[in-house]
Design a protein that fits this description.
Elements (H helix, E strand, L loop, with lengths): L2 H42 L4 H8 L3 H8 L1
Helix pairs in contact: 1-2, 2-3
Length: about 70
């Protein structure tokens, strides 16, 4: 592999890794948004903050913030 090919390969590898990282980040943000929506519904149904945190995966502080 010559130097030009090596540089091209490394650039494409970096692009691929950036793409995968972007997808991973978007996936995590989607999970968080879903957890928040679930927590809102649970709070509306009268569950305690502790139960909402336990079942949604959010922290108690995050649930308190949602409740306000």
């Amino acid at each position: 592999m010559n130097e030009t090919d090596k540089v091209s390969y490394e650039e494409s590898l970096k692009t691929f890794r950036d793409y995968v990282n972007t997808l991973d980040q978007a996936k995590e943000e989607g999970k968080k948004e879903q957890a928040v929506e679930t927590a809102k519904s649970m709070l509306q149904d009268g569950l305690t903050i502790e139960k909402v945190a336990q079942y949604s995966g959010l922290t108690i502080e995050e649930v308190k913030d949602i409740q306000q």
